[in-house]
Specification:
Layout lengths: L3 H4 L12 H5 L8 E5 L6 H9 L4 E5 L7 H14 L4 E5 L6 H5 L5 E4 H4 L3 H8 L10 H8 L3 H9 L4 H19 L16 H9 L8 H6 L4 E2 L5 E2 L2 H12 L3 H19 L1 H10 L3 H18 L1 H9 L3 H4 L3 H11 L21 H13 L5 H16 L3 H21 L4 H17 L3 H18 L2 H18 L2 H15 L6 H18 L3 H8 L12 H14 L3 H14 L7 H17 L15 H10 L3 H8 L14 H10 L6 H14 L2 H7 L8 H4 L4 H12 L13 H11 L4 H8 L3 H14 L5 H11 L2
Parallel strand pairs: 1-3, 1-4, 2-3
Antiparallel strand pairs: 5-6
Helix pairs in contact: 7-8, 9-10, 11-14, 14-15, 14-16, 15-16, 16-17, 19-21, 20-21, 21-22, 21-23, 22-23, 23-24, 24-25, 25-26, 25-27, 26-27, 27-28, 29-30, 29-31, 30-31, 31-32, 32-33, 32-34, 33-34, 34-36, 36-38, 39-41, 40-41
């Protein structure tokens, strides 16, 4: 820095206040009255003397108050009129009204910002000769903001930062006591950067008066940074933060949150996170992520992962939310959400994280806001990651109740609502709660439309398409796929992720049309082996169907069995059990139509059970199984298949002209070929493909499918009334003589009837006959 001898031996200062040339460059040189309204520590007396220079005049210091400024100025005006060569410089008190003074006579006004040295002026003040331990002009500017008293202290002792800050604090405190009595302007010290929009967003968070950047500049709290922007000097910021701290820690936390939210609103969440981390504002940071994570996640899940990586480990470990959230983020890529299967058997009672999130979700549900919905979603996803699918479905139903209360009470972010419904729908679907999942998905679609977020629309429509095609409603599935196709092109990040379910739905639709080539082409879009996406059981079934389509039944069974063994816990979800049981049962039927007992019979599709009975020639048992098919749409409705199998069970004799007309009408309404292919497997109905009018391509596809069907089983034996009576008597343990006596006929007659009965039952003796009768359901 410049030595004291260079600054002037007497005062240690240059002859002229360093800021005066800048002020004079835009001032009226003919004015003889100067008002200075600035805080002590800015060199205001020095500035006044510099302005007077060698001219006739005096400096009047009224900064201490106790004077009627308006009357005093009137007296000064009289003096100026009586003495044309007189110049007066007046240091005003902070509360003085410049408007009232300037209306009385031409004058100059030097405000706080006029006296604070800018970067160039500090550079001139510092000079070129500096010691190694002395800060440069830029650092001095950032520290002091050009307060002259602080600069002088640091010029003598670069280590005296505490004393330099105290020199600012005294003048600033008196200055703000009048300029900022409520402390609102000083609250801006919590903002990390300053521009017009950010300042207004900050005050809009908490203040009834939305102060502007200009207000802060006029108060001398913010000034140009020398690089085209604005800054608040570090020492000024420290003083103001300490001032706010005297009003209580609650005020500090509120302002930290307001600053972080303003940054997020204007500069984006990532910039707000950087700011919060830099200033160690941990509560505000957690609130920020809870409030805004959904918008970042929807835009780019990996960006949220980048943001999370900036959060110190010890902060992330303080809350279950962050810990679970980071686990989820680590499982997301552009193609799937890869939830690694749990290594230990799921146990809800001993799962600490699940219990903690459950308690927090219940507590927060009393105030159903964005925080409550976020924690509720984390709970459901954590349960799914832990293999606790039933519990996840229960938590999802509770989350939806919380959401609906929140919608009744306040305005929620539509994107957050849509994502909440989407995640609840996934949990409900994996838990086997199909109708509830449909409701959640359809509500999610409504809110996704309101949000305008393409990624949400594409995701939820794909899942609705999959749900509908598995219900057998191919027409609805096609409509949802059309909605999906209309939005997937607008998804820029994670397109493969949100298109996964739509692709699987498209594969099922190809099978419904018996379009095996289209099915294979669609399957090529999916991974060659099941990954750990949450809907991997659906893909596993489709991979098994690929093998079934070429007659490789054993390979299909091996695939399902191996996946069940490898993924013991995730394969236990209700959805997975149902799909796998259905697949294995289909293989059993195609391998010979033999209905085996056990092996997950409680999860078997009643339509497949009915088909098995029909293939075994047992229409009565098929009708009994069809009674278990839900009347309302559900996963097991399978379109028209229930109607087709019911017709076959009630008409074991086969097709009639009336039945052909009805089938023709039903097929025209659905257009689904696979239903006809299954019906064509039933004995007596193999000519259905030739009976119903089809397009040539449809006829070819149906013929190929029927070639894969098992050989028709022999028809169920038709017993006469007398033979049925003999069968009941044999089952009751009666001998041939007892049967003859009971029917008042000879033993030879009974012997003839028994021989006919054995022939029809393809049996050689009574025990064999009874076994075969049971197999036929007689």
């Amino acid at each position: 820095m410049r030595s004291r001898s260079q600054m002037g031996a007497a005062s240690g200062l240059p002859d002229v206040h360093p800021a005066l040339p800048r002020f004079l460059s835009r001032a009226d040189g003919n004015c003889r009255l100067l008002f200075i309204r600035s805080a002590a520590g800015t060199g205001r007396g020095y500035f006044a003397r510099s302005w007077l220079g060698n001219r006739s005049g005096e400096v009047l210091d009224w900064s201490g108050g106790g004077i009627d400024v308006v009357l005093a100025v009137d007296h000064l005006v009289q003096r100026l009129h009586s003495d044309p060569g007189l110049h007066l410089a007046v240091i005003l008190p902070p509360a003085a009204s410049i408007w009232a003074l300037t209306s009385r006579t031409p004058c100059l006004v030097a405000n706080q910002g006029d006296l604070l040295l800018n970067l160039a002026e500090i550079g001139q003040f510092v000079g070129s000769e500096t010691r190694a331990d002395q800060p440069d002009a830029h650092r001095l500017h950032q520290l002091t903001g050009g307060w002259l008293a602080a600069l002088l202290i640091l010029s003598d002792d670069p280590q005296a930062s505490t004393r330099a800050r105290q020199s600012i604090a005294g003048g600033l405190a008196r200055w703000l006591a009048h300029r900022d009595p409520t402390g609102a302007l000083g609250d801006a010290a919590f903002l990390p950067l300053f521009d017009g929009r950010t300042v207004e967003a900050f005050y809009g968070e908490f203040s009834p008066v939305v102060h502007t950047l200009e207000d802060l500049v006029q108060a001398g709290l913010v000034q140009p940074d020398g690089l085209g922007g604005w800054m608040m000097p570090r020492m000024v910021r420290q003083i103001l933060v300490e001032r706010v701290g005297l009003r209580g820690s609650g005020r500090v936390v509120a302002l930290e949150r307001a600053a972080v939210n303003a940054m997020a609103a204007i500069h984006g969440v990532e910039a707000a996170v950087d700011s919060a981390v830099a200033h160690r504002r941990w509560p505000a940071l957690l609130d920020l992520l809870l409030e805004h994570w959904v918008d970042v996640f929807i835009g780019n899940p990996r960006q949220l992962d980048i943001i999370a990586s900036k959060i110190p480990h010890f902060i992330a470990e303080q809350t279950e939310y962050m810990r679970v959230g980071l686990r989820i983020l680590g499982s997301v890529d552009r193609q799937s959400i890869s939830l690694r299967p749990p290594g230990l058997e799921p146990d809800y009672a001993t799962n600490h994280t699940a219990q903690r999130l459950h308690q927090d979700a219940l507590r927060l549900a009393n105030k159903p806001n964005a925080h409550a919905l976020t924690v509720g979603m984390l709970e459901t996803v954590n349960l799914r990651m832990s293999g606790l699918y039933i519990e996840a479905g229960t938590a999802a139903a509770r989350l939806r109740a919380t959401l609906h209360r929140g919608l009744d009470a306040q305005r929620l972010n539509p994107a957050l609502v849509a994502l909440t419904e989407l995640q609840a729908g996934i949990s409900l679907y994996l838990a086997g709660k199909d109708s509830e999942a449909r409701q959640a998905y359809e509500s999610g679609f409504h809110w996704a439309q309101i949000s305008g977020k393409a990624v949400l629309l594409a995701d939820v429509t794909g899942k609705l398409a999959l749900l509908n095609v598995l219900e057998g409603d191919s027409a609805a599935a096609a409509r949802w796929l059309a909605e999906h196709d209309a939005t997937i092109g607008d998804v820029s990040c994670g397109r493969g992720l949100v298109a996964r379910c739509a692709t699987m739905a498209r594969a099922y639709l190809a099978l419904a049309r018996l379009d095996y080539e289209g099915f294979e082409q669609t399957m090529d879009v999916l991974p060659p082996k099941p990954d750990h996406d949450e809907f991997w059981p659906v893909q596993a079934q489709q991979l098994a169907l690929q093998k079934i389509n070429v007659g490789n039944f054993e390979a299909a069974k091996t695939l399902i069995s191996s996946l069940r063994a490898e993924r013991r816990y995730t394969a236990a979800s209700p959805l997975a059990r149902r799909l796998f049981d259905d697949t294995l049962m289909l293989v059993e039927i195609l391998q010979g139509g033999v209905m085996r007992r056990g092996g997950g019979a409680e999860n078997r599709d009643p339509l497949l059970v009915a088909l098995g009975h029909l293939l075994n020639g047992n229409p009565d048992a098929a009708l009994a199984a069809l009674e278990d098919v839900p009347v309302t749409p559900g996963l097991r409705r399978r379109g028209n298949l229930a109607l087709y199998l019911d017709l076959a069970a009630r008409n074991p004799q086969g097709l009639t002209p009336e039945l052909v007309q009805r089938l023709q009408r039903l097929h025209q309404e659905s257009g689904v070929l696979y239903e006809l292919s299954i019906l064509g497997m039933v004995p007596g109905w193999s000519e259905v493909g030739r009976s119903v009018v089809l397009e040539p391509e449809e006829f070819q596809r149906l013929g190929y499918a029927l070639d894969l069907a098992p050989a028709p089983m022999p028809k169920r034996p038709v017993l006469s009334a007398r033979e049925q009576e003999v069968l009941r008597q044999l089952r009751a343990g009666m001998s041939r003589r007892q049967i003859a006596e009971a029917g008042y006929r000879s033993e030879n007659t009974v012997k003839t009837q028994m021989r006919s009965l054995y022939r029809k039952l393809e049996a050689s003796d009574m025990e064999h006959a009874l076994d075969n009768a049971r197999a036929w359901g007689l």
